[in-house]
Amino acid sequence: MRPINAVRTMLTLASVLSFSACTATVRPRAGVVYVQQAPPRRVVEVIGVPPSRAHLWIEGHHEWRGRDYVWIPGRYELAPQGFRRYEPGRWVHERAGWYWQEGRWR
């Protein structure tokens, strides 16, 4: 095979493989519930005075209840030993739909 034909064959093969990767189907994550309806906008909450300096605010969020979203209000919680901040949960959008990613202590 001539060098030019070998390069052309390699480029053709590379473009076919890259195109096939773009058209692959997306597999939903195991154990994740996907919702086709986007979550509503966040509710603006009035944050009161914390019960103590050790309490941190956990903001409210919308929760999917099978047919519609329900607002779960924010609350104060005591930070677990060794944790100083809370990373809030959030709704994540993928091709399969929306899913809730739980918040966690850091």
Keywords:
two-stranded antiparallel sheet, 1 helix, 106 residues, two-stranded antiparallel ribbon, 19% helix
Question: What does it look like?
Answer:
By secondary structure, this protein is an alpha+beta fold. Helix content is 19%, strand content 28%. The chain has one helix and eight strands; from the N terminus they run αββββββββ. The strands form four sheets. Strands 1-4 form a two-stranded antiparallel ribbon. Strands 2-3 form a two-stranded antiparallel sheet. Strands 5-8 form a two-stranded antiparallel ribbon. A hairpin with a 4-residue loop joins β2 and β3. The protein starts with a helix and ends with a strand.
Q: What's the arrangement of strands in the largest beta sheet?
A: 1-4
Q: Main beta sheet: strand number and arrangement?
A: 2 strands, antiparallel
**Helix amount:** 10-25%
Oligomer: single chain
Indicate the proportion of strand residues.
25-35%
Protein structure class: alpha+beta
Order of helices and strands: HEEEEEEEE
Number of helices: 1
